[in-house]
Specification:
- This protein is α+β, with helices and mostly antiparallel strands and 111 residues long.
- 21% of the residues lie in helices and 23% in strands.
- It is flat.
Amino acid sequence: MGTIPVYRWRLAPEGLATFRQLRALGLRPGGQDVAAQLERPRRRREPLIAFLYRVDLARPVRPMTPARWAALERANAARRVCPECGRDAGYRIPTSLGMCTPCAYPTASAA
């Protein structure tokens, strides 16, 4: 088992692309292994790492079917319902709160 090549920032050879670059071209890695690694140095911290894939082995992105759009819409709608009060919050409920804002921060009761 060999190691993968590591390239410095902006010095990767032609024919290799990151996941986002592939997506911008309408491609996906398609099950291929990582071909190389890209490192971007940072001051006083670990370098940023990006994996590179071969463009010639990439496959086209699968199109969204009506069933996939419907499933995505149902999943997003479920994330809008507050588990405490059961109402549609009108926004995606943050996972940090786990409930809608009025349930997480109730106003002080009138005394």
